[in-house]
Amino acid sequence: MAHVVTPLDQPSNYKDSQARLDRQKQNEMLARSSTLYIGNLSFYTTEEQIYEIFSKCTSPEEGGGIKRIIMGLDRNTRTPCGFCFVEYYTHSEALACLRYISGTKLDERIIRCDLDLGYREGRQFGRGKSGGQVRDEHRQDYDPGRGGWGAQAQRLEIERRREVEERYADAHEGPGAVAGGGGDWKEAGSADNPLKRARSPDDEGDAARSGARARLEDHDQARM
Amino acid sequence: MNYHGGHRRKHYRGGDDYDNDRRKEMYETPEQKLRKSIINLGEVDPVQELPRLAKEIYEQASLSIPAVSEGFRIGVTEQPFKVPFYAALLRLLHDPPPDASEEAATGGSTTLGKQVLEDYWKAFQAFLDKLAWREIRLCIHFFAHLTMARLVSPQSMFELLKSFTAVLEEFSASHGRAMKAALCAAEGLMMAGPIFKQENDTDASEIINAIAAYTDSVVGSKVLVQPIARLDAEAPVIEHADELLDSALAALRIFKTDDFSQTADSFPQPYLELPEYTGSLFDLPSVLVPPEVIELDGLTTDSGEDAQIKKEEWPQYYVQLFDNDITPDPTTPVGYAIRSSILDLIDIFEVNRKECARLLLEFPKWTLPGTFKPRPGAPPQEPLAGKDWQLESTVIEVILGSVFLIPESAHKPVYYFALITELCKLSPTTVGPAVGKSIRKLYSLLADGLDVDLSRRLAEWFAVHMSNFGFQWVWKEWLPDVSLSIRHPKRIFMRRAIEFEIRLSYYDRILKTLPEPMQDPNASLMPEEAPGPDYDYDDPTRPYHDAAQSVLNLLRGRAKAEDVIGHLDSLKNTISETAEGDVHVDTVLRSVAMQSLLHIGSRSFSHFLNAIERYLPMLRHLTSSSIPGGVGIAIPEARYDILNAVSAFWKRSRHMVVIVFDKLMQYQIVDPTDVVSWAFIYGGSSDASIGKVSFDAFQWDVLKGALDKANGRVMIARRKVTALRKEEDDNAARAKASDSATMEVDAEGKQANVIPAAESPALTTALKAFTTLTREQKAALSRTLDGFVGYLVAEDKPNPHARKVITENAWHNRANWDEIEWETWETWCWFRHFSRMYSPYLRNYVNTLAEASLSKVGPASDPAVGLFKKTWNIATGQE
């Protein structure tokens, strides 16, 4: 039944970028695999929620079931970073998930499922520079379910904040601590510097981000 | 999205592979192109495209007739809604080519159409040989339309249909086989009926009578599979549902009465617009429907029963959710035609639910104009009297009808759930209301006896659906039902639906979706607190707190299992010295150890698995013996203690109880039979209810988990034996082959090698495992039957309510039922469900099981005993 439409359980172009196997070998393994990679999870989604939705594709009477769930963790913080592996006892259960679960919502996010070559030690950790998943490294959008801004954006934000904090560390009190702002136009030759610094576009961005930060905190409280 | 550096490169490499795959697809051979053109018929307007496509085929057909007939084959069997148009296309191919040469014009050769048809027949024969029923039936649609198009001889078509009704007269044809054959004949007759009427020796009533005779003979099993359970009914009471084959028959009778004038009103017949074909008719060769082949592996249990599972198909009752002016009545000609087409679509496109949803919403394109209301925004049309149905309601009704088939749906329920989700995503404003109305209708049926397992599926669908759409349900409208008895099906449903929603989401999220009065713990809908663990020994004032802490500390410190066992043994002495009153020391110890283990594993499913795996020796020690330090034979009490500890620890999360039980069986700490026993002895609602004789949905989940585990193990063991045998056969064949190659000179040596080698140790082990596991399977089933006998009809423990709730009067008085009546009714329903769900397994062991359990029932004069035995007999195929 694949003439008219493409079945949803055909292998996609997902792959483990660090697998050191040739393509054909990988395909052979995928054709037998009972492990799924699950992506786009919320950092807050629990294994029990995952178990609940993925148990709908099990065939226990055929000797199947959920063998284990491996939660993807941030390498540094050891907190969930938005992916996991679900391992079944049979291949057909994994395929059923590609047809019925992939592309539907869990914890109000559309999750994706892909056949995986199988769990190996170390794969439970994020591979991004910051410990999480690579996709969260460069993400430009704000995603409350995945820690807000992408890791790089977060890092920039932290750096900027530090800059802001350090910028005025040299502020002092007393006369002359605050600039006067300059008076009326005077004939050239005065001691005042004529070049006024233009407002940095960054300033505006910071304001927007702090608003987003507040939203993130709101969200966290909602989950507590 | 803005990717940086290295990542971008990597990403692109992936993209290249993808493009390569694509490119390969893009270079198509001319045959593939032609095939594709045929498959794609009707992308815009099938009727207008016909002449152009026919011309294209004429131009290319010299390439290969098989390519053309393959296009037809795929088109017909994978896009059945196009069948009438394929018939019209084949009709055009019976004309002489547009640039007719001398030869063709003088009729010197068979038409292209006829050549295609001849080739097509081979494909049909192949489907028939494989007994690919759906394909067979769809090919029959094609032939029926071809008969109407005057391409196929009516006589031969009639004979073809009769070879399918012949199946109905076979001795001991399974219901599944008979039903599928009957549908082939019925649907073919619906489409070709008008032609048969014009002929002399083709009498439609021959076929109709054959089907009627068959459906009359299957009354018994119908009682067990109706969506609305009526325990008091001797014969099936048709309420809010219709049976597939019965509907076909009812529709056929209307067709017949009207002299098949409704065929033109039920199916598009585009070929009738074309000039009549006057050439010779194609005679369909006569066929014989081959018998079902069951590959016997000869594996039997230790007592010689056949352990192979033959899934029996049951009559198919589709639940009705809408009035006949909203959705078509499937017992009428056009109503049957529409439902049957939608069912085929849902079945064929199971591989891609997104495409399936799209095609379902495009379905009106393939029906006669006026069948469905125009889409919002489409030009208005004059409503056709008796038609003008709502597409979305019709589609949702058929999908839910498929979900709610008993004992189970053809595909996993989650497929249908996901399909409905896709439909809602494609057209939220039109599909959403249909879904809402369906939920309300099904909810209202809960008070009228909607089957318990359907109630469970409804709650499951409800939760999954809401999880995909922001948990937006107007709970307020069900508020009045909060005052119903706590065991009323509506309240059970609401509780379950909320429980399932929480599992998919989290407590506070779901709490927010409920109106104030439903949030109130007194409403008993929402649990008082979020699901979580309850470690009985946390509180320092509780007994055994110190003992538990000492165990917990060892486990937390990852002490070796032997050390923990040693510590438990010493604890035993301390406890027995200090215990006051009548304390079962072993039980206390098991509870302390098990709960402590669950405690360290309570953070997540993975933590639990790790904890269990680390302390397997301790668990085995706990369940196998009460003698300190000794490992003896497993004792059931010890296992119940373990299961009770789990149930106590996770009393606020019954989901976890089922999960933990599953893994305890997986690691063979307990056996499925232990879990079955536990479900009956201790499984009733948590608080000191031992001795209770009612069975609820939670107990069903526990029971199902255990039985599926037992059955699944037998399945694995069987596969292993089969694989090993095959391997041995292959090895033997290879050895023989190499022998004959090398030992041709040594005749005696060759002789010696022909003696079959002894079973390999692996095979011996596998066979032994198979025997053990089938014994366990039988024990688990037997224990279940025993449990239900004990609850409902045991002679030594009569249950007076069991016979009260099954009378017609009692049922009509259900508005006044209290907890005990509803509980008992539910218990009956779960017993029914057990019987039909596990019927294929029960049949294998029917005698042993009946002997062991049915001997314990009360007197036959008791109506409860009568119902119990009747249910059992139907399920095991004895009635």
How helix-rich are the residues of chain B, as a percent range? 55-70%
- Could you name the ranges of chain A where pLDDT drops below 50 across 5 or more consecutive residues? 189-224
> Termini distance of chain B?
66 Å
CATH class of the largest domain in chain B: Mainly Alpha
Please, how many helices of chain B?
40
Instruction: Tell how many strands the DSSP assignment of chain A holds.
Output: 6
Helix-and-strand structural type of chain A: alpha+beta
Explain how this protein is built.
The complex is a heterodimer of chains A (224) and B (879). By secondary structure, chain A is an alpha+beta fold. Chain A has a domain at 23-129: 2-Layer Sandwich (Alpha-Beta Plaits), CATH 3.30.70.330. Helices cover 29% and strands 14% of the residues of chain A. Chain A contains five helices and six strands. Chain A has helices spanning 23-30, 47-54, 91-100, 151-167, 201-223, and strands at residues 35-39, 66-73, 80-88, 105-106, 109-110, 112-116. In chain A, the strands form two sheets. Chain A has a four-stranded antiparallel sheet, covered by helices on one side. In chain A, a hairpin with a 2-residue loop joins strand 4 (105-106) and strand 5. The longest helix of chain A is centred in the last third of the chain and has 23 residues, at 201-223. The relative contact order of chain A is 0.12. Mean pLDDT of chain A is 78; it is low at 189-224. By secondary structure, chain B is mainly alpha-helical. Chain B folds into four domains: 30-99 and 108-273, Serine Threonine Protein Phosphatase 5, Tetratricopeptide repeat; 317-334 and 345-469, Serine Threonine Protein Phosphatase 5, Tetratricopeptide repeat; 545-682, Serine Threonine Protein Phosphatase 5, Tetratricopeptide repeat (Alpha Horseshoe); 705-737 and 759-875. Chain B is built from 40 helices and two strands. In chain B, helix 9 (154-168) runs parallel beside helix 11 (204-216). Chain B is globular. Chain A: GO terms for molecular function: RNA cap binding. Chain A: Its main location: nucleus. Chain A: Residues 134-144, 214-224 have a biased composition (Basic and acidic residues).
